[in-house]
């Protein structure tokens, strides 16, 4: 049974790396990769663990959707990012999805900081906008949103890179340190 986990982990790593490369190149994560991946992971879990495996895989898929739905609706993430993370959830189940979400969030924050540092004007504009927003919101006691500046856009973040980094971290740690606390906090979920 361990060979199945290893095989699915290798397949998952290949999928997230390929999707990260597509994301960097064209800001698109192809449905032709992620949608079949979800179905393959559901099928593999069902074939080897029956309904309990399918339930765990679908729960991971649902959690992944829930974690990324609000950022997607806010326009922070694209639909491809959501579907890629759903494929991750389908492979790793609920415990792995939560752990990967934490590592993906850390990787995404670090990635965003690096992009902003490389684009110093963007970082300066971001903090000016944040300061202006805070002053106006505190002064009026309303959360006012500033319209986007049409002549200047923030640099694009390809979140597929963060998803790949978070997934690789989770998979590697789960193999190297299976008793690591962060990996076992949610033991009851899977």
UniProtKB/TrEMBL annotation:
- The yes or no answer to whether the keyword Membrane is present is yes
Enumerate the transmembrane spans: 7-24, 30-48, 60-78, 98-117, 156-177
Asked if Transmembrane helix is a keyword of the record, the answer is yes
Limits of the Prepilin type IV endopeptidase peptidase domain: 10-113
Q: Which domain of life is it from?
A: Bacteria
Identify the keywords attached in UniProt to this record, alphabetized.
Membrane, Transmembrane, Transmembrane helix
Q: Which family does it belong to?
A: Belongs to the peptidase A24 family.
Name the UniProt record assigns to this protein: Prepilin peptidase
Q: Which organism is it from?
A: Halodesulfovibrio aestuarii
């Amino acid at each position: 049974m361990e060979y199945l986990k290893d095989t699915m982990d290798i397949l998952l790593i290949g999928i997230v790396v390929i999707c990260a490369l597509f994301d960097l190149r064209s800001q698109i994560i192809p449905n032709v990769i992620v949608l079949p991946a979800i179905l393959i992971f559901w099928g593999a879990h069902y074939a080897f663990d029956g309904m309990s495996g399918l339930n765990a895989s679908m729960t991971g898929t649902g959690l992944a959707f829930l974690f990324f739905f609000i950022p997607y609706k806010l326009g922070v993430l694209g639909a491809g990012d959501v579907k890629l993370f759903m494929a991750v959830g389908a492979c790793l189940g609920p415990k792995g999805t939560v752990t990967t979400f934490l590592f993906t969030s850390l990787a995404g924050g670090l990635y965003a900081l690096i992009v902003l540092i490389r684009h110093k004007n963007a970082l300066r504009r971001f903090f000016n906008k944040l300061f202006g927003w805070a002053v106006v919101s505190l002064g009026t006691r309303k959360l006012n949103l500033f319209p986007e500046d049409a002549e200047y856009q923030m640099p694009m973040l390809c979140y597929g890179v963060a998803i790949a980094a978070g997934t690789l971290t989770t998979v590697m740690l789960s193999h190297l340190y299976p008793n690591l606390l962060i990996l076992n906090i949610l033991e009851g979920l899977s």
